[in-house]
Design a protein that fits this description.
Distance between the termini: 41 Å
Number of helices: 5
Strand content: 15-25%
Structural class: alpha+beta
Helix content: 40-55%
Shape: elongated
Number of strands: 7
Length: 190
């Protein structure tokens, strides 16, 4: 369930690797505790006998099914959801049996916004909306931990990527001056 490093390009490195906020695993933990409590209560409260043993097996079987369906499955979904921020792009990946991945290059990010409801502010998470130039438009990242810091980091990544891949005013003036003097163009990054 770890994010494979082989999806990164040669010069690309991971800046942030996040899963949705831990609040997503509260329900699975609660389901597990309630299932164990139900089995223990049935074991203690049911009278001795064959009918009680069958009832205990039924309660234990139902508890196991609920733990697998409402406990284990949401946990696996949580662990297999990745929000990856690199120096080149934002990768969003989710899926257990099948997989969906979306790559948003930093050059295509037009805008980003965060939203936190009151409870999310208390828990330190929120929703990050990334607007990108392309067919799919918006990407919603729900339950992002420390969403305010993640949004700031995303801004820094976009700006750093823009600065790295664009000419500054001084560099542009040098190129124009060289062109006026008839000098051959040189690589500004050299």
């Amino acid at each position: 369930m770890a994010f494979p490093e082989d999806v990164l390009t040669e010069d690309e490195h991971v800046v942030l690797h996040l899963h949705p906020h831990w609040k997503a695993v509260l329900r699975p933990i609660l389901v597990l505790v309630l299932a164990v409590a139900a089995v223990v209560a049935a074991w203690i409260l049911l009278p001795d006998g064959d009918a009680a043993a069958i009832a205990l097996y039924v309660v234990a079987g139902l508890a196991l099914l609920l733990v697998l369906w409402l406990g284990l499955w949401p946990f696996v979904v949580w662990r297999s959801t990745h929000y990856l921020f690199t120096n080149e792009r934002v990768l969003l990946q989710q899926g257990v049996l099948s997989r969906d991945r979306r790559d948003i290059p930093l050059t295509r990010i037009n805008d980003h916004a965060m939203n936190q409801r009151f409870v999310e502010r208390l828990l330190g998470c929120g929703t990050l909306t990334i607007e990108s130039a392309g067919e799919r438009g918006q990407a919603l990242l729900r339950d992002v931990p420390r969403v305010d810091r993640v949004q700031t980091k995303l801004y820094e990544l976009v700006e750093a990527h823009h600065d790295k891949h664009s000419l500054g005013d001084g560099e542009m003036r040098e190129i124009l001056a060289d062109m006026r003097e008839g000098k051959p163009l040189r690589d500004p990054s050299a």
